[in-house]
Amino acid sequence: MKQLGTLILPDSLQWMDRFAWAPVQQSAAHTLSGRLVYSVAPVTAGQPITLLADENVTWLEANTVQELLTMAAQAGATFPLQWEGESHLVLFRHHDPPALNLRPLWPHHDHHIGTIKLIVAK
Known about the structure:
The protein is mainly beta. Strands 1, 2, 3, 6, 7, 8, 9, 10 and 11 form a 9-stranded antiparallel β-sheet that branches. Strands 4-5 form a two-stranded antiparallel ribbon. 9% of the residues lie in helices and 46% in strands. It has 1 helix and 11 strands, in the order βββββββαββββ. 16% of the residues are buried. It has one domain.
């Protein structure tokens, strides 16, 4: 099941960047003597989650889009995301606009396609 807050999401919605993220942060630099110095630490939050409603796979109903707009308008609000047995606490990725990039499949139509950008809060 796929659910954001209390909103049930279509099963065919796709998580595009699910495996394009590493839970480790690393930096490396060379000293003046040429020695390599690096720092490694685990990343506990900040995983981007980009959900795609592709026109050939998933259409979002108008009421779902309206609920997403209402949720995204709540500045700083976090929401539980249930995704096929996984649980994440997320917020909308407003620092990487647009957090919601949805458009009607056809003009003046109730089915929408596009992306929903979230980020793991903790």
